[in-house]
Amino acid sequence: MGSLKQIPHTRIENLSFRLYSEEEIDKISVIHITKDESFNSLGHYFDKGIYDLHMGPMTSHDNDLCKTCNSSYFYCSGHFGHLKLPSPVYHPFFIDVLKEILQRVCTYCYRFQASAKRGVEFFYETKFLNAGFDKVEVSTLVQKAVNDPTEAAESMLDEEDEEENDRSRKKTTSVNEIGTIISELEKEFSKIKKTRVLRLRYQDTKFLIKNVKKSESIFATEEKVLQGLVSLTQPYLTTEQAMEMLRNCYKSDGRILKCLYPVLCSSNIDNPTDIFFLKKLLVIPPKYRPCNTVHGRMIENEMSVLYKYIIKWSKCLRFLKSSTEESEMPEALKFLLKELKGDTIVEKRFNIMCLLQGSVDNILDSEINKLNRVAQKGIRQVIEKKFGLFRRNLMGKRVNYSARSVAAPDPMLGVDEVGVPLDFAMKLSYPVPVTPWNVSKLRKLVQNGPTCFPGALIVEDEEGRKITLKADDVKQRIAISKSLLTRTESCVKKVNATKIVYRHLDNGDYVLMNRQPTLHKPSIQAHKVRVMPKDRVLRMPYANCKAYNADFDGDELNLHFSQNEMARSEAQHIITTQNQYLTPKDGSPLAGLIQDCIVASVMLTVRGKFFNKEDYQQLVYIALSDLNRKIRLLKPAILKPQQLWSGKQIISTILLNLIPEALAKPTFNFKTTVKVE
Ligand SMILES: [Zn+2]
Ligand SMILES: [Zn+2]
């Protein structure tokens, strides 16, 4: 590894988000999409349709090349196209902001409904607060600034310069505090009594106006629309009108608007308020909205359906707007118009606008209008929350060679064992290099294949190519098994080149078991595998419950299968349950007998319980089966009429045999109290 200096790195100081302006959309987009059809009768994409190859190929099977970067499906990451909307629609993310502004603004002079003095005060307050002054300083500074605007502005600039040298000032007000102070100011600012303002309600993708009389003036310019609108039950604000209002508002009170909504400062276009509207819509590349085939029928992605919908209705609206004779319209459009709700042209135009707005809302955010949505997931839903792109795909991670299941007890397992279901064992694999010493065993495994236990899943050749063993092709498996030791021609002269067999998890393998929360070292321990052919759960002996803090009311355990000899060795000699007997915390024993084991030991050692020779020797043998020496037995407690051993004698025999021979016998005694309920 190189030294730290060679690693390129940067420190991020700040991060800001903004919206694309119309010009930027033009620059990014590779094609203006105008056709609402997808394929012609031969199944080719239409030029300028929603699958135009300029945006990159949609699927890999046609070997299409991207017309923009000339790469195939796998190398082209897709390019944006764009749609033009006949009239602007509201940006669905800014509906609330828009409503707020429109309701605070006077409909005559387009200034905020506050005294001019308060407006100026507000402007300076936010400015000073953002510059890092605290609340007390701000009030005096603001007074100074309001009284003499020109000088104040200069003094403020001076102060800012000073601040560059003296960074300590910034510490007095944290970013959070500034946020709360500003939001307080905003609230105060919005409480001012509203006169001569629009009362708006956003419903079904349009702004309805509540009190028409007071705001009649703004309709004067669009008298035609107004005349048509009389038939509608409630007048509404067209997007063009709203856009015009905001532009005027920016002209007269832009300074304050920028303070309230910093997003307006981010772009350099002439009318920053236009970002609240969408006139052009970016079309995401076809690659990310592929068609599905269900029972041989092509089903288009919801996103594509929405784009087509928008193009279709945009065409309609353009025809209606251009006031061409109805006879000149294409038949398809005429049919569409007939189906549309509304009697007059104006009403139809209005309805089309609603449809367009609804579709755009749906593409960007499907939560806005849940009733009429086509796509279940808008772009916003793809990104945000727990199941969004960031938290699920970028921050979350998956682990290979692992398994997870409910844990169940099994008193017949050894203390260091774990019972693994056969299904798991046949999915997990371990890479074993082929050598002359293990080749006969591996041949057998390869011939067994992926579905016969113990078998193998994959064979990797000397060059790293992986061949999946097919469950239904015995000939393939036999052929591969016979050539396990034969080197591929290109690798004959390579040293250490071997084939690798990915065999099933087998009895005696060591796996790491883990139960969350992983609070201490023994929360992960290595266990020896015993494959349980009939089980569907992980089986665990009782003794390890305390280490994992597990019970069997539905607790789940994670299993990790280590993938090289080093890790296996560490698992077997360091992490194994046998070496985790004492708590790292205070040295008290971790493993112990609980539940069934307690009941069994009570029943075993209760007074008057006797065993004949056969049972006595059997029980002792089970306990000491891994002892590699002659087992010493005790004389029976009762000789006549039959040789009988007491239960306590079984325990004594076991202890006797476990004491190391060469050492002195351990001397210990302790008292304990048992609570009897
Ligand atoms: Zn491309
Ligand atoms: Zn006014």
TrEMBL record:
<dbReference type="GO" id="GO:0003899">
    <property type="term" value="F:DNA-directed RNA polymerase activity"/>
</dbReference>
<dbReference type="GO" id="GO:0003677">
    <property type="term" value="F:DNA binding"/>
</dbReference>
<dbReference type="InterPro" id="IPR007080">
    <property type="entry name" value="RNA_pol_Rpb1_1"/>
</dbReference>
<dbReference type="GO" id="GO:0006351">
    <property type="term" value="P:DNA-templated transcription"/>
</dbReference>
<dbReference type="Pfam" id="PF04997">
    <property type="entry name" value="RNA_pol_Rpb1_1"/>
</dbReference>
<keyword id="KW-0479">Metal-binding</keyword>
<dbReference type="GO" id="GO:0005736">
    <property type="term" value="C:RNA polymerase I complex"/>
</dbReference>
<dbReference type="GO" id="GO:0046872">
    <property type="term" value="F:metal ion binding"/>
</dbReference>
<feature type="region of interest" description="Disordered">
    <location>
        <begin position="151"/>
        <end position="172"/>
    </location>
</feature>
<dbReference type="InterPro" id="IPR000722">
    <property type="entry name" value="RNA_pol_asu"/>
</dbReference>
<feature type="compositionally biased region" description="Acidic residues">
    <location>
        <begin position="156"/>
        <end position="165"/>
    </location>
</feature>
<comment type="similarity">
    <text>Belongs to the RNA polymerase beta' chain family.</text>
</comment>
<keyword id="KW-0548">Nucleotidyltransferase</keyword>
<dbReference type="InterPro" id="IPR015699">
    <property type="entry name" value="DNA-dir_RNA_pol1_lsu_N"/>
</dbReference>
<dbReference type="InterPro" id="IPR044893">
    <property type="entry name" value="RNA_pol_Rpb1_clamp_domain"/>
</dbReference>
<keyword id="KW-0808">Transferase</keyword>
<dbReference type="InterPro" id="IPR007066">
    <property type="entry name" value="RNA_pol_Rpb1_3"/>
</dbReference>
<comment type="function">
    <text>DNA-dependent RNA polymerase catalyzes the transcription of DNA into RNA using the four ribonucleoside triphosphates as substrates.</text>
</comment>
<dbReference type="Pfam" id="PF00623">
    <property type="entry name" value="RNA_pol_Rpb1_2"/>
</dbReference>
<keyword id="KW-0460">Magnesium</keyword>
<feature type="domain" description="RNA polymerase N-terminal">
    <location>
        <begin position="274"/>
        <end position="605"/>
    </location>
</feature>
<dbReference type="Pfam" id="PF04983">
    <property type="entry name" value="RNA_pol_Rpb1_3"/>
</dbReference>
<dbReference type="InterPro" id="IPR042102">
    <property type="entry name" value="RNA_pol_Rpb1_3_sf"/>
</dbReference>
<dbReference type="InterPro" id="IPR006592">
    <property type="entry name" value="RNA_pol_N"/>
</dbReference>
<dbReference type="InterPro" id="IPR045867">
    <property type="entry name" value="DNA-dir_RpoC_beta_prime"/>
</dbReference>
<keyword id="KW-0539">Nucleus</keyword>
<protein>
    <recommendedName>
        <fullName>DNA-directed RNA polymerase subunit</fullName>
        <ecNumber>2.7.7.6</ecNumber>
    </recommendedName>
</protein>
<keyword id="KW-0804">Transcription</keyword>
<keyword id="KW-0240">DNA-directed RNA polymerase</keyword>
<keyword id="KW-0862">Zinc</keyword>
